[in-house]
Amino acid sequence: MDSILSPLYYAVSFVIKAIHTLLSPIFGASSGVSWSLAIVGLVVLIRIILIPLFVKQIKSQRALQALQPKMKELQKKHKDDRQKQSEELMKLYKEHNTNPLASCFPILAQAPIFFALFRVLNGIGKTPPHAYGVLTLADVKNAASAHFFGAPISATFLGSNVTTVKIVTVILIILMSATTFLTQRQLMVKGMPAASLENNPMVQQQKILLYVFPLIFAVSGVNFPVGVLIYWLTTNLWTMGQQLYVIRRNPTPGSPAFDEWELRKNAKNAPTISQVIVEESEETPIAGQRIQPKRKKRKNGKSKPT
Asked: Poorest-confidence range of 39-53, 156-170, 203-217, 273-287?
């Protein structure tokens, strides 16, 4: 495993060390702020690189929603032949150049980086510490002394008996699970057309995952170092914000967010009360006021009465 992930050890440790070096003059080389922000910076860099995958994910999700009527027809037509049903669905996906697994691409792309970071931070917490990638032994010892709200960034819930570590890790695990749940719920409640929610097996699976994923993170989070929990919480917050931006500014047609977007658009284009009053006052003369004829401009710049 180390030989396979070795390039990622170097990439992850290089980014963390570079950001830490930039922040050290401000917060201090041994400061938990420097090392924590270095992990946050790693997330930001990765998510910027993954923006094309995120765009592809959105396009694929919308293409699948547009294909829902045809998918239902195929499922109804071949309800007694699962193999034929699968073949026809794959053919439909291929014809429309879409992939039902595209929604998993950003998570799958992050998985190797996640494991590499886990390994690097685990090396910091070992006794004696183990340096991975470009980190030197001095860097590792420096990082081992860094704390996040009193908890070493390499500490885990199960690997420590310190009360502060227990409290910090539990709070981070709760926040990590909650943001995962809210991100999934945000997509289902605001970003999906109402028609696609009815009798849709994929939607039913997403509803199950809505509760399963947070539970998985809550159970597995007790083994994650504090630094990894910071990484995962940050990437969840990024995903939530990115998804909220897309749902608000470029909603899926037919979704509740699309209806809200149209209301905002119509409200923006509607004339204000002051504009209506001004227009009415221009068209309706005041009692006793002589109506002045409107004048048209001639080509030479002078005006003539109309």
From this structure: 273-287
Supply the pLDDT for residue 199. 54
The secondary structure element, H or E, covering residue 305 is: strand 303-305
**Nearest-angstrom CA–CA distance, 259 and 252:** 10
Structure tokens at 191: 């970003």
Confidence of residue 191 (pLDDT cuts 50, 70, 90): low
Phi-psi region of 129 (alpha: psi -120 to 50; beta: other; left: phi over 0): beta
Q: In 129-166, which positions are buried (b, 16+ CB within 10 angstroms) versus exposed (e)? A: bebbbbbeeebbebbbebbbeebbbbbbbeebeeeebb
The candidate with the shortest Cα–Cα distance to 57, out of 239, 198, 235, is 239
What global pTM score does this model have?
A: 0.74
Say how far apart CA 142 and CA 38 lie, in whole Å. Answer: 14
Query: In whole angstroms, what is the distance from residue 147 CA to residue 304 CA?
Result: 81
Phi, psi angle pair for 265, to nearest 5°: -65, -45
CB 158 within 8 A of CB 176: no
